[in-house]
Write a structure and sequence with these properties.
This protein has 204 residues and is an alpha+beta fold. It is 18% helix and 30% strand. It contains five helices and eleven strands, in the order E-E-E-H-E-E-H-E-H-E-H-E-E-H-E-E. A hairpin with a 2-residue loop joins strand 10 and strand 11. The longest helix has 9 residues.
Length: 204
C-alpha cells in the first residue's frame, strides 16, 4: 500500500503466496533490492515474468524472514461474463462464416446474441444481431480484447462504442453498471439465420 511501508493486505486462496505470506506482513526487499513504496515493488516486477521465483524479505511481528514465491501469469478477464454483468449484453465472436450465414455486411467484431431487458445495453437500444466493433479508440474482434477493456470499467463510466446494424453504423455512449447489480444469468437466445431489415432509430 502507499505510505512509508509496503505491506500485505490479503493473500488470495490458492495463489502461490498462500502459506508463505500473511496479511500485515511488511515487505522489506524483493530479490535483495530494498522496497520502500509500491512503485519500488512494481518496478522490480517489470523485470520478471511468469515462472520466475522471487525472494521476498518481510517483517512479521518482531521477526524478519525470507520467503520464495513463484510468479504466475495474470488470468485473462472473462469478456463475455464482464459484458453480461456490466453492460447487460451477451456477445459472441463474429467470424466471416457466421457473418455470411447471417448476411451481415461486417465480418469482424462481437455479435449481440442476448440483451437483458432493462439493462444498460437494452436501455440504449442494442438488439440481436447488432455488431460491436469498437470501444473507445480500440477495435474489438474477440472477447479477450473486450475483457481487457471492461476489467477496469467502473459503475457509471461511459463507453463510446461503435455498433453496426445492417448497413448502418453508429457511435453511441453506453454507461456501465456495477457488476454486483446484474441479475442471475439466464439462457440467452441464439441468432437466427435470417437478419431482419431494420433502419436505425434515434437510439441505435
Amino acid at each position: 500500500d502507499w505510505g512509508a511501508e509496503v505491506y500485505v493486505r490479503s493473500v488470495h486462496p490458492g495463489s502461490p503466496a498462500e502459506g508463505k505470506l500473511e496479511p500485515n506482513d511488511v515487505l522489506l526487499a524483493l530479490n535483495e533490492t530494498s522496497v520502500r513504496q509500491v512503485p519500488d515493488f512494481c518496478c522490480e516486477l517489470l523485470e520478471l515474468g511468469a515462472g520466475d521465483t522471487v525472494r521476498l524479505a518481510v517483517r512479521r511481528g518482531g521477526q524478519s524472514l525470507t520467503v520464495a514465491v513463484a510468479l504466475t501469469a495474470k488470468p485473462k478477464p472473462d469478456g463475455r461474463l464482464l459484458a453480461e454483468r456490466k453492460l447487460g449484453v451477451t456477445f459472441r465472436e463474429l467470424t466471416p462464416e457466421l457473418a455470411r450465414s447471417l448476411r451481415l455486411p461486417i465480418d469482424r467484431g462481437l455479435l449481440v446474441v442476448g440483451v437483458e431487458k432493462g439493462g444498460p445495453g437494452g436501455r440504449l437500444g442494442l438488439d440481436l444481431q447488432d455488431v460491436l466493433f469498437q470501444v473507445g479508440r480500440f477495435y474489438v474482434t474477440d472477447l479477450d480484447a473486450l475483457g481487457q477493456i471492461l476489467e477496469d470499467v467502473r459503475a457509471g463510466d461511459g463507453l463510446r462504442i461503435g455498433v453496426a446494424r445492417g448497413a448502418h453504423m453508429a457511435w453511441v455512449t453506453l454507461r456501465a453498471r456495477d457488476a454486483a447489480d446484474a441479475p442471475a444469468p439466464k439462457p440467452q437466445p441464439q441468432p437466427q439465420p435470417q437478419a431482419p431489415d431494420r433502419q436505425s432509430g434515434d437510439r441505435i
